[in-house]
Amino acid sequence: MAPPGTDPAKMQQIQHFLSSVLSQRGPSALPYAETTKWLIRQHLLNLIASYASLEPKTATFTHNDGRSVILLQADGTVPMPFQGVSYNIPVVIWLLESYPSRPPCVYVNPTRDMIIKRPHSNVSPSGLVSLPYLHNWVYPSSNLLDLAAQLSAAFSRDPPLYSQRRPQPPSPSPSIGSGFSRPPPSPYGHHQLQQQQQTDDAAEVYKKNAINKMVEMIHVDLVTMRSAREAEAEGLLCLQAGLKRREEELNRGLQEMVDEKETLEQQLQVIAMNTDFLDSWIIENQTKAKNLPLGLDVENAFECIGALSKQMLDCTASDLAIEDTVYSMDKSFRDGSLPFDQYLRNVRLLSREQFFHRATAEKVRATQMEAQVASIAARLHS
């Protein structure tokens, strides 16, 4: 089965043909994956738009193991520039069941007056084409349009076909006694035979006219139904492409939500550890609040437990003090009471010192976090 080949509306008819055959379901459906049918249709349309001599068809393909299956093919010719003249090489491009994930199968299809060149670097004696582009097929970037260009370039370097002279068929000789091949007409019953033949001719003409009228009506109905089905298939293919895009967007959104969930779970674990630490600290120091004297100095109310806590307190205090100093210097510079060179020199020195305090505080914080995790793990196991 092939699409109509009327020149003025060829592309539109090819679109309708591809939409019709790719939208079929059930036993008559082509053996391609549903998710790739819209891409197959686009590859063929792009190929026909650039190579009008090729035409999409459906035909029976027989595998090496004897299996027969109906597949899409692009049948026609590809141009072959050779020594300043353009020749047309007949080829058949079969789209196998695994297309477009796997490359198509290409055959040179010589006519009766052509012979495949032997040996040939790219074409076997059976006509099977082998190209580096087919061996290095990459889905989804590889396509039929680039394949046709590679075929034309390869054939231009080494033409795969050459013509042969066919022997002229012998002219028929007149047979002896050919003038006696028709028997003489019978002289009996000639009038009755002529009248019966006229009656039979009238009945046959009436029958043929009725059949032609019925065929014409059926053809009109089929054209109408076909146009409706092709429009419906075109809409379904567009809908399939839209659903494919939405599926990709949903997958991306779902992945972002999963990543965000993992980040929130990590933050929740950190918050849970900090909560446990604060709860244990409150329980530990709750009884101490009742024994505090009334005139307690706030500066000496807290004592650092361990060298790491004291180091963290010193680094944090120095960092905040430097921050306040830089702020005051900035205000003095804007007021004009601090020279510019002195302002830059002091800011550079203070920033260097502040960097070391912050780096030390980060190391101390990481060490304390490891100690807290180990303490919580030991408490849970106990």
Automatic annotation (TrEMBL):
<feature type="domain" description="UEV">
    <location>
        <begin position="21"/>
        <end position="165"/>
    </location>
</feature>
<dbReference type="GO" id="GO:0043130">
    <property type="term" value="F:ubiquitin binding"/>
</dbReference>
<dbReference type="Pfam" id="PF09454">
    <property type="entry name" value="Vps23_core"/>
</dbReference>
<keyword id="KW-0653">Protein transport</keyword>
<dbReference type="Pfam" id="PF05743">
    <property type="entry name" value="UEV"/>
</dbReference>
<dbReference type="GO" id="GO:0008333">
    <property type="term" value="P:endosome to lysosome transport"/>
</dbReference>
<keyword id="KW-0813">Transport</keyword>
<dbReference type="InterPro" id="IPR017916">
    <property type="entry name" value="SB_dom"/>
</dbReference>
<dbReference type="InterPro" id="IPR008883">
    <property type="entry name" value="UEV_N"/>
</dbReference>
<feature type="domain" description="SB">
    <location>
        <begin position="306"/>
        <end position="374"/>
    </location>
</feature>
<protein>
    <submittedName>
        <fullName>Protein ELC-like</fullName>
    </submittedName>
</protein>
<comment type="similarity">
    <text>Belongs to the ubiquitin-conjugating enzyme family. UEV subfamily.</text>
</comment>
<dbReference type="InterPro" id="IPR016135">
    <property type="entry name" value="UBQ-conjugating_enzyme/RWD"/>
</dbReference>
<feature type="coiled-coil region">
    <location>
        <begin position="247"/>
        <end position="274"/>
    </location>
</feature>
<feature type="region of interest" description="Disordered">
    <location>
        <begin position="159"/>
        <end position="200"/>
    </location>
</feature>
<feature type="compositionally biased region" description="Low complexity">
    <location>
        <begin position="188"/>
        <end position="198"/>
    </location>
</feature>
<dbReference type="GO" id="GO:0000813">
    <property type="term" value="C:ESCRT I complex"/>
</dbReference>
<dbReference type="InterPro" id="IPR037202">
    <property type="entry name" value="ESCRT_assembly_dom"/>
</dbReference>
<keyword id="KW-0967">Endosome</keyword>
<dbReference type="InterPro" id="IPR052070">
    <property type="entry name" value="ESCRT-I_UEV_domain"/>
</dbReference>
<dbReference type="GO" id="GO:0015031">
    <property type="term" value="P:protein transport"/>
</dbReference>
<keyword id="KW-0175">Coiled coil</keyword>
